Amino acid sequence: MKNTILYILLVFSSILTAYGQKRDTLSINVKNKLFSADSTLFAAYNFAKSSPFYIKKLMPSTYNNLSIGHDFEKGHLMKAQDATKANGTFLRTEGISQLKSISIWGQFSYKRTVEDSVAFSHQTRNNLANPYYFGSARNVNYQRTIYNLKTLASKNILKNNLPIGLGADYRIGDHYSTNDPRGDISDYQLNLVGTLGYNITKELAIGAAYRVGYGFEKVNVAYKNNSLNQGRVSPEFTNYLINGYGEPGEYNVNRTVQNNQTRNGLDAYLTYDAEKTGSFNFNYQTSKEKQKFDYRTSEGISKFISFNLVNENYRFFWLKSTAVNSLSFDLNYQTIKGDNYLNDYLANSYLFINNTTSIKGHYTLKKNQFTHNIGLGLKKYEERRQDGIAGNDIRFNQLNYSLSYGLNHQNKNNHNWGVSLTGLYNQYLDSDFSVLLANEGVFTRNVIYYDYAYNTTSKFGGNLTADYSIPMFKQIHAGIKAGVTYWRRDNLKDFGRVLPNTPGKDRFSSNISLNLYF
User: Which residue intervals define the domain DUF6850 in the entry (predicted)?
Assistant: First the structure.
């Protein structure tokens, strides 16, 4: 069944690509490469991926890209449940095209990642607020494979006064560890959105959307060596059930759990486009998600906990573009609140809250075959986790800065090269820490203490990226792109607890990819 679905995804992606190739050949691929090198217009393109409502306004009429590459990450400057080393291979193709009066954007991606030395985390990487999962002190190696298909479509009806749109986001994930304790995780997600708008005037438009989604995660932990499955030979092989953000209990029977997820939400849009002042785009999104964790056998279903997530997002995007230069600002405020409900206690015990406020600015200047890109980013991030049973209350607050400059050049033969440099700084602001010593155990020392130390130290780093591309076969612009990123931390905060392990001094990552524009 899975192979059949993946085949359908590949065929669908190929169809989208074929539509994108019906137009001019050489000029289109050159324009697509130049478009990707314009950080301001590309920021608008990425913003438009959030809803079908924007794709006619902020995406080009035609753009197609395919990337194949490899990324690598290594170092001990990481959160407690991250991998000390990760190798990933990816393939991604995306594009927008016009099918008569319909604008269609689609993206298909595949990624396979091998992670070394992951502890206390038999879970996926896309549900980090998850309060209910298995873990062990033993380091395991994970292999993760993820397939993702996204598509958006938009059409104007009633004399172009009523834009309607549809969108879908479909994901399949397979995750398993290759040594005891062996976690085996499968996840599936499907999210749909429908939009409806109205053009009040030529410049002013309003719109709304309804979102609905479903997903599940199924986790099983087993042992190839049966003598290890109760933790009798070595305590580090003991399997724990993490339930909230406190000390977990041993859980060496029925090590299977399924998480069924349902979600729905609403969007509201307001846009204003004027030649002199630019394009103003505001949206508000709210969604509610319910996760139900249970154990399923042929004899029935045993219910464990429910977890509720409420997400609110306010976002404003402004773009002013001319033939010579362009400027954009992206302001965003998001809050996520989660709380669980324990069936055994008939009460809530765990609260998860995070608030993110960010601003991103891009300026692009085109002159004498050169494209200059300047970027500025500022993000304030606050996270709080409370566990009523354990008596834990932990909060931290960060301010993250980024400043970048990029230069791109295309000569008369359409050979293109580019280089960019970004400075990064994560500043620790303040925090609260309340953990009862009486409840201190292996998870508290190795995860809670470790993550608090990681999140309350400032970090600085940088990124360097370079690429070179040339026309090929009169239809494709092909190039190589490579980048490196380095992070280093300041001194750790002393909060009066002894850590068996501390976050490392630094972390390094790199990537290289083959990119085709057509």
Answer: 57-518
Whole-model pTM? 0.92
Cα(295)–Cα(303) distance, integer angstroms: 7
- Which helix (DSSP H) or strand (DSSP E) does residue 65 occupy? strand 63-75
CA 407, 110, 514, 416 torsion-angle sign: negative
Place of tokens 């002042």: 277
Side-chain-side CA neighbours of 204 within 13 Å: the count stands at: 2
Residue 301, number of CB atoms within 10 A of its CB: 11
Burial 397-434 (b: 16+ CB within 10 A, else e): bbbbebebebebebeeebebbbebebebebebeebebe
> 186: domain range?
24-517
CB count within 10 Å of CB 350 equals 25
Domain annotation covers residue 366: yes
SS3 386: strand
The answer for residues whose C-beta is within 8 angstroms of residue 437's C-beta and 6 or more apart is none
CATH of the domain at 138: 2.40.160
Quick one: how far is CA 239 from the chain centroid? 28
Q: Read off φ and ψ for residue 362, nearest 5 degrees.
A: -130, 135
- Report the relative pairing of strands 278-297 and 182-199 from DSSP bridges: unpaired
Q: What six digits make up the tokens of 260? A: 């069924």
Number of domains in the chain: 1
Is the predicted pLDDT of residue 359 greater than 90, yes or no? yes
**What is the per-residue pLDDT for 2?**
47
Q: What is the 3-state secondary structure (H, E, C) of 186-231?
A: EEEEEEEEEEEEEECCCCEEEEEEEEEEEEEEEEEEECCCHHHCCC
How far from chain centre, in Å, is Cα 324?
Answer: 33
Q: In this predicted model, what pLDDT tens digit does every residue of 214-256 receive, in sequence order? A: 999 999 999 998 888 877 678 899 999 999 999 999 998 889 9
Helices 26-36 and 39-48 meet at what angle, rounded to 10?
90
Q: Please indicate, yes or no, if residue 19 is contained in any of the structural domains.
A: no
% of the chain at pLDDT higher than 70? 95
